[in-house]
Design a protein that fits this description.
The protein has 2 domains: 57 residues, no CATH class; 32 residues. It contains 4 helices and 3 strands, in the order H-H-H-H-E-E-E. The chain has a 3-stranded antiparallel sheet with strand order 1-2-3, with no helix packed on it. A hairpin with a 4-residue loop joins strand 1 and strand 2. The longest helix is centred in the middle third of the chain and has 17 residues. It starts with a helix and ends with a strand.
Length: 96
């Protein structure tokens, strides 16, 4: 691959957030291979990703949201897609 093209692809992929980078790796086998080889497995790629992660932790703004529940919350669990609230009145609410 031509050096200029490789540099451009690296800049594009490093611009993406983690979820978008994961989605890009799902586009095709060649994209997944490229991302794995040059971002996740290379020293330079991992260094750039680490730098980006550190900057996001230091300077990034959190995504705030308010969720209204029918009663006071005493326990909460979550995954990438939803929140599950255990309420003091004995019920459970799921927000996706």
């Amino acid at each position: 691959m031509e050096r200029g093209v490789h540099a451009a692809l690296m800049r594009i992929f490093l611009f993406l957030d983690t979820r978008s980078l994961r989605n890009a790796a799902c586009v095709s086998k060649s994209w997944r291979s490229y991302i794995r080889r040059f971002l996740w497995q290379s020293v330079a790629g991992r260094k750039a990703l680490r730098k980006k992660l550190d900057a996001n932790w230091r300077y990034g703004l959190p995504d705030d949201a308010t969720i209204e529940c029918a009663a006071n919350v005493f326990d909460m669990q979550s995954d990438d897609k939803s929140f599950i609230f255990g309420l003091e009145n004995g019920s459970i609410e799921v927000c996706a």
